[in-house]
Amino acid sequence: MQAFIIARRFVLINFLVCLVAAHLADGILQHGVLLIEVVYGFLALGVIVHGRLEEETQEALYAVAAGTGGQIA
Questions:
Q1: What's the pTM?
Q2: DSSP state string for 4-62
């Protein structure tokens, strides 16, 4: 009888450890996905900002070439 109780406790403890491990793994994986989304967001923002800076630089160069003293409309 006592061996049965010990076996039940072992199964219960094993089940709880598996649940906790699965929960931690799920959290780590979600963190990884979130990190990837943040990095992609920063990359996309960098591309947009870089493109806008190139446009502003071209406008300034055109203004200087046109003789307006660098004034941009």
A1: 0.39
A2: HHHHHHHHHHHHHHHHHHHHHHHHHHHHHHHHHHHHHHHHHHHHHHHHHHHHHHHHHHH
